[in-house]
Each structure stands twice: as C-alpha cells, then as structure tokens.
Amino acid sequence: MKNNRICELLGIKYPIIQAGMIWCSGWQLASAVSNVGGLGVIGSGSMYPHILDEQLTKCKAATKNPFAVNVPLLYPDIDKLIDIIIQHDVKVVFTSAGNPNTWTSKLKSHDIKVVHVVSNSKFALKAQAAGVDAVVAEGFEAGGHNGREETTTMCLIPIIKGAVDIPVIAAGGIGSGRTMMAAFALGAEAVQIGSRFVVSEESSAHPNFKQKLLETKEGDTTLTLKSITPVRLIKNAFYEQVREAQERGADNNELIRILGRARAKKGMFEGDMEQGELEIGQVSASFKKIQPAADIVVEIWQEFIETKKQLAELDTDI
Amino acid sequence: MKNNRICELLGIKYPIIQAGMIWCSGWQLASAVSNVGGLGVIGSGSMYPHILDEQLTKCKAATKNPFAVNVPLLYPDIDKLIDIIIQHDVKVVFTSAGNPNTWTSKLKSHDIKVVHVVSNSKFALKAQAAGVDAVVAEGFEAGGHNGREETTTMCLIPIIKGAVDIPVIAAGGIGSGRTMMAAFALGAEAVQIGSRFVVSEESSAHPNFKQKLLETKEGDTTLTLKSITPVRLIKNAFYEQVREAQERGADNNELIRILGRARAKKGMFEGDMEQGELEIGQVSASFKKIQPAADIVVEIWQEFIETKKQLAELDTDI
Q1: Cβ of B238 under 8 Å from any chain A Cβ?
Q2: CB contacts < 8 A (A, B)
Q3: Are B167 and B6 a contacting pair, CB within 8 Å?
Q4: 3-class DSSP state of B78
Q5: Which end of chain A is less enclosed by CB atoms within 10 A, N or C?
Q6: Given an 8 Å threshold on Cβ–Cβ distance, is B158 in contact with A172?
Q7: Which chain B residues are Cβ-neighbours of A122 within 8 angstroms?
Q8: What are the residue ranges of CATH 3.20.20.70 in chain A?
Q9: ipTM of the modeled complex
C-alpha cells in the first residue's frame, strides 16, 4: 500500500500483519503470510531458544520477504532469544508483555525495527519514548493475554492514535476487510490479525483446535484469570474449574495450581479441547473455513477495497 | 442522509440517535437532538408514568421533529407507559431489556416504529421475528446495562449485520465521527450514542457527574454486578464495596443489599460521586468539554464526512 507508514517501515505490500502466537505461528505460517505480501510473525513465546534457531533457518529458506519474531519480554531466556534473532538478521521484532526500555536500543543498534504491543495510552507513550518504531494497540476482544483495563478496539485505537506520533497498528476483533476498514477509520495504519490465521492451513494449531474454532459462537470466549494475568480463551472444562474456583473466592495460589503447567500446549498444540487452555479472540465466532494463509490475506484485502468503495458511495450531501 | 434506511424509517436528517438513558435524557436533551436533525430519545426507565406524561407534553412543545421514547420492557408499570406513549402519538419506541414479542404488535398497530436493543444475534433474530423495524446492536464498551456475553462493538456489528435483514444501528464506544464511520464500515446504517450526550448542556445529569466525565480516563469504567445484571459504571467507593464483596465470593442477596435502592439516581441525578452508581461507557475517556447537544451532532457529522474523505484517499492500487 502506497503512502502507508507501516508498509514503508516494514517493507511489505499489504498493511496486514499476522500476529505472533504461541503454538500456532511457526515458520510455515509466517513464511506463507510474508510470501503473499503481508508480514509473517513467528511467535517465540512457546519455543526453546534452539527451536527458534531452527524455525528462523527454515523461515529464511521459505521466503525472501521480511518476516518478524514476536518476543514476550518476560520470557526467562530472553537474552538467548535476542542473540539468535540478531544472528539470523531478522528485520523486525514485535515485543510484548514487558518493559520496552530493556531491549529496544540493542535491537535498533542492529538495524532491527521494533514494534511494541500495548493496551493503553500510558504504555504507548512509554514505548514511543523507548524508541520503538510503531505500536500495536490491542483491544479487549483479542485472544490470549490481554490488558487489565479491558478497553475495546473501538475505544482504544482513537485514544492511542491521539496520544502518539508513531504509527498505530490495530489488533483485537479484526479478521475481515470490513473490520480492517473500521480500524483505519479509527486511525490505524495497519492491522495485526491473530485468530483468523489460527484457522489457516499453515498454522501449527492442532486440527482439533482448528475444527473447534469453526464451531465457536458469540459468547464462547471469555477473559479470565484476571487476578494472575488476564487471558481470553474458549470456555471449556478447564475454564469451568477456574470459574468455579473464582466464584468461591479462591486465592492466586489455588488458581496457579489449577492452571498447572503447559495447559496452552495441551489444548492448542496437542488437541485436548476440554483440559487444554484454548486462547482465541471473540472474532472466532465469524470463522467459516480453514484456508491457505495467502487466501486469507487476499480475501481480507479485497473486502477492504470493496468496503472502501461502499463507504465512498455513502450519500452525505444532506 | 439519502438512501439510508434508518433516516427514511425514522424521518430524520442525520443517522445519529441519542440513546435513551436513565436520569440523563429528558425532554430538553431529546428535543435539542431532534431539532438539529438527529433522533432525540427520552429515557423512561427512571420516570414514573405521570413524569413521562409531562415530559412528552414538554418535548412536543419544544420540537416539531420526530423523537422517541426508550422503554425497558421489565419496567413494572409498563402498560401505563405504553398507554401514555400511544396517547401522545409518539412516532418511535426503543425497547430494551425484555421480550420484544410482548409489546411490538400493539405499538405497531398504532403506527409506531419499534426498535429493539440487542447484544447478540440470537436476540436480534428474535426481535426481527417479532416484527421490529430495526435493531440496536450494543457492544461491551457501552455504558449502563449490558449483555452477558461481553461481545464488543467491533465483533458484534458484523455478526448482527450478517444475521438479520432489518437495519442495524451500532451502539457502544461511539462518540465521534471516526467511530461512527468505523460502525458504518462494519455494516451499521446508523449509530446510537449515549455517553457523549451525557456531557451535553441539555442532559439532566448532575453537574458533578458531567464534570467527573471530563476527568475520566482509560480503565476508569468496568462491567460489574455480572451475577445480577451486568452494568458498566465508573469505579468509585460504591464500586469498591461491590468488588470487595465479589472477591470474597458474596452471594447475590448480599450484592443486592449493597446495591440498595436508587443508587443510580444518587449518583447521576443527585451528584454523589462516591456512593452513587455512575453508569457510563468506555468512550467517556475521550470527552473534552460540555457542549450544546446540537453542536455534538454537527461535530460528529462533520468528522464523519472528513473521515469518509480520508478513507476514499487511501491508495489501494498496489
């Protein structure tokens, strides 16, 4: 897209970014999105350092276009991840869940573009001050880990846009050309889409999870575990244990014990639809089919153009 | 607006509807909005039948344009309200919080247009089947009473638009021309705006409440009392009592006792900012000033046209 700061910054054709997601976005998905002209993102949050190393080697072999890595800043071995990213000459890093001051200058000294994910204007201003190139503003409807203030995409994007000078990428509730155009109306210059790419052929989500998402309806996800770290997931048997414990006033220790270890892997990667943690956004209620990632990008772009045409035809001479 | 089903249905110039709100939207506000060419709505939920009667007499004296009444269908004396509305020859009724089958046919037999407020596609389809003329689809970010499924405006509007044939009016998070255009991108044919009109000169909200809204920031509202009836309000001392009780697993009887009687009146109408219930939407974080309602309508419309122009100029030839 011409005259678009995000396309210029990241060297991409479409202002469509595939969100880095744990257990769902490896090299196959990232390279498929980058090859068609969006920005593919490898989600390193569920990878040991040596796995990320392998993934980057494979991704570079599969695409000549820019791709990115998402790094949760609270990752225990983060220094190892950062070193691997620099060694592989990755062009773009998305950081989330932590302080953007810690790694931004090191990444930028290696000529890596840095984008930080935020859920309010205070963190957006902090990220801008830390020198990041753009922010992702993620609303309450987004899947996975989410802000405590519960500000929705409709309310968040205009606030962040009004607060910062760097470009704003909208996330949360976006999975179509119509929602992408809504984000642009609100002031976004690009969109980050996670959930819709989980039901791509190339995502590493378990087939059970992809199938489950085709059956997901309004109200089937919820933001829970707010006293530990808020996360949006599908209501299943695991969630019911959490809900029951919360309703009787269980403390965080008990909630952490119920959560246990590797719940997200069990659900999203191993396919246990009842005892696994199934992170996904509200927009999953709109999913109709499993498609190649490239088709998703092109379909969204075409609907975006069609919506632009419809809005231009609105008769506002009154 | 030409070729707009809501403007044609309701006989209004701008597809901008002022939401009927308890304690804030009497005849002064409704007539001011209707006079400028939007649809003013009297919120009858906080009115005794004889008060509504007076309000309708005054509203008709203050405007020759169509205006509406919002009726919560769970109102105890609803048959009296409906009779008064029919006697006054009101042209449009917005119904909410109840079964649209109960009153729609009676209202329509008196040539009254009926619009029902919903928060999911199941209720939208039920309302359409009951014969209503349009639905308001209201997202999680909206102020006051709200749906249990927490679907945000960004996710809800495309789902409802895809489910029904009657026109969809978007509500929740809308208070500007940009957000109005986002709603149109999502498929809405009009918008319903509540919170922004609370800070109009003509709203009957207490001056303390209006002032408080100019200071409200992101994260200052929350959806609470979900086990009784979900309501979005400002976090104050009253809310802290509710939160503390909920965290230790208090039952509904205790929550109802804490809520007590007339909390909303105490806050929004009488000005007690700590012990009152202060219902408002997330969009209140964007409010800058108290203005005449007519200026709000015109400002939103002008920004809507400006946003339309900006979107039309996006260079999508790639």
Answers
A1: no
A2: 177
A3: yes
A4: helix
A5: C
A6: no
A7: 218
A8: 5-205+288-312
A9: 0.97
User: What is the pLDDT averaged over residues A164-171?
Assistant: 98
Whether A309 has its CB under 8 Å from any CB of chain B: the answer is no
Over residues A67-73, the mean pLDDT reads: 97
- Is pTM beyond 0.95 here? yes
pLDDT at B28 over 90: yes
Task: Quote the crossing angle between the two packed helices A293-312 and A27-36, to the nearest 10°.
Answer: 40
Q: Which CATH superfamily hosts domain B5-205+288-312?
A: Aldolase class I (3.20.20.70)
Task: Kindly report, residue by residue over A170-217, the tens digit of the pLDDT.
Answer: 999 999 999 999 999 999 999 999 999 999 999 999 999 999 999 999
- Distance from chain centroid for Cα A156: 16
Which residues does chain A have within 8 Å of residue B179's beta carbon, measured at their own beta carbons?
154, 158, 185-186
Is any Cβ of chain B less than 8 angstroms from the Cβ of A228? no
Q: Please state the φ and ψ torsions of residue B175, each to the nearest 5 degrees.
A: -155, 15
Residue B123 is predicted with a pLDDT of 97
Q: Say if residue A249's pLDDT is above 90.
A: no
Q: Do A218 and B283 touch (CB under 8 A)?
A: no
> Given this model, what pLDDT does residue B97 score?
86
- Name residues whose C-beta falls within 8 Å of residue A12's C-beta, 6 or more positions apart in sequence: A6, A34, A37, A38, A39, A65, A66
On whether any CB of chain A is under 8 Å from the CB of B231, the answer is no
Closest listed residue to residue A176, CA positions, set A278, A67, A306, A68: A306
B140 contacts chain A (CB < 8 A): yes
User: E strands along B194-311, which residues?
Assistant: 221-224, 231-234
